[in-house]
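[worker-b] picked up task from shared queue
[worker-b] task type: protein-ligand structure
[worker-b] ligand name resolved to zinc ion; SMILES cross-checked against name lookup, match
[worker-b] sequence length check passed
[worker-b] input payload:
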Amino acid sequence: MEISNNLGNYDQEVDKIIQKMDGVVRDFKRFSLSLPGRINVAKTFLYSQLNYLGSFIPFNNEQIKRFNAKIESFVKGSLNISSKRVFAKKTEGGLGLFEVGNFLNSQKCTWFRYLTENNDYWKEKILKNVNYNEWWYVSESNVSGGTIVKGLVGAVEKMVNSCIKDRKFFWESKLAYNNLIPIRGRRGITLDYEFFGIAAIEEIPRIISLKTSTLYINGVLLSWENFVHISGININRGNYMILTRAVEILRASLYGEERIQPEVKFLKKFFKKESKGSKCFRDITNLRTERYIPHNIVKFAQTTDSVISEEQSQIINVLWDMNFLDNHTRTFCFKLHNNTLGLNSRVSKFVRGHTSNCTFCNIGEIAEEMKETPLHFFYNCEYSEPVVMYTFREILNENDFVQMTRSDFFGTFKFDNDDKNMVLCLIALWTKMYLWKARSFNTLPVNEQALNYIMEKIKDTYENSKKFRNMVINSELRIRF
Ligand SMILES: [Zn+2]
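[worker-b] inference finished, payload out:
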C-alpha cells in the first residue's frame, strides 16, 4: 500500500483493488460455477479485497458503485435479475449479497469496540465532544480530524440513525441530525444544534447523545416543560412539537397503541469488545419498517394463481439457501421463485417468433393451444397434473391429500407440524424440478419416473444431512426408499 499522508493517491489504490477483483473473476470464470458457487467465491475472494483498506478509508460513491458492479456482474453470470435483487435480503427475494457501501460502513463500526481502550489520536478526536458513557452517539459534523476519522464517525452515525426504523432499536436512535425522522410538510428543517436551541458549546454533547427514549416516560411523551427540565436542553416549544410529532408517527407505526418503553441496551451490547463481526451493524442499517410481500413473490403468486402470505413468502425466499440442497436444486429454486425460468410464455416475450405454448401439450399434440405459464406447466397441464397428484398421493395419507391445495404446492403447506411442511415444500420443489427436467429432454413426464426421481433426491439429501434427516423423521410422512 502506498497511501501518502494526505491520502493524495487514493484512486491508485482503488484501481489496484479493481485489478485484483478482475483477477479473481478471470480465475473463476473458467469453472462455470453454479449460482451458489459464485456467491461463495464472491464472499470469500471478492469482498476480502475490499475489506482491508475499505474498513477505514472512505471510498467515494463512484468507487463504491464500481465495486458493486464488479460483484454484481460476477455473481449474476447469465442470471437475469435486477441489481436491486442481487443486494436485497434473501427473505425479500434477493441473493443476500452485501452492498459494498453498507458492508464497509459496518466494518468501520467495529473499530469503535476499541475506542475507549488506548489513547490513539483518532480516538481522542472522537471522544473529545461526546458523552463518554454513550459515545456511540457521535456526529460526523462535530468531529475534526481528517477524512479517515470523519469516515469512521459517519459510519457509526449512519448506523445509529437507522435504529429509528425498528421496534427493537427505536428507543436508542439518535435525534440530532437524524435525516430518517420524517418532518413532513416542513422541508428545509434540519435537526441541527440550532434547532435544539444551543446556547453554549458545552451543550453539544448533550444534544448529540439525545435519543428517542429521552422523549418518553413509561411510553408516554414528556411535556415540553418536563423535557427541558429533565434533559437540560433548551429547545423552544414550537420545535419540540415538530420533533415529537414526527417521532410519534414513527412510534405509532412500529408500536401502534402499545405504550411500552423497553430497556435501552442493544447498542451497548454490540459495542462490547467480546462482540464479533460486523453483521449486527449491517442489520441495523438495512432495517426496513414496512412489512410487505416481496415483489418476486407477488408476481410468483399471480402467475401461479396462489395465495401466499408474507410469512410464507419469507420461507419460500430462503428455501434456495438451504445448504443441504445440491447446487442444481438451489439454482432451480431461486429461478423458479424469481420468475426467471425459461418457460415459453416468458421467453416468447423476449425472442420474436418463439412459441409461447406448452412443451408437453405440443408433444402430446393437444389441439387446444395452452400457454406455458408456471401455473399451466407445473400444475394444470394435462400431462403434469397426474404426476403431481400421483406423487403427493403416495406421500400423504388420504385425509391430508384431499386437503392439499394449489397454494400449498406453489407456496407452503399449512399442517401443524413444521418439519412436515418443510419436507413437503421440498418435495413440491423436486416435483417441479422433475417436470422441468422432462421438458428439457423434450419428453412427457411419467408418474413412476417422477416418484423415483423425487425419492432419489430425498435419499441423497437424507444421507448427507442430519438436519434434513431429522426433518424427514419428524414429518411422519410416507417416505420409503
Ligand atoms: Zn400443457
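[worker-b] attaching auto-annotations
[worker-b] Strands lie at 216-217, 220-221.
[worker-b] releasing lock
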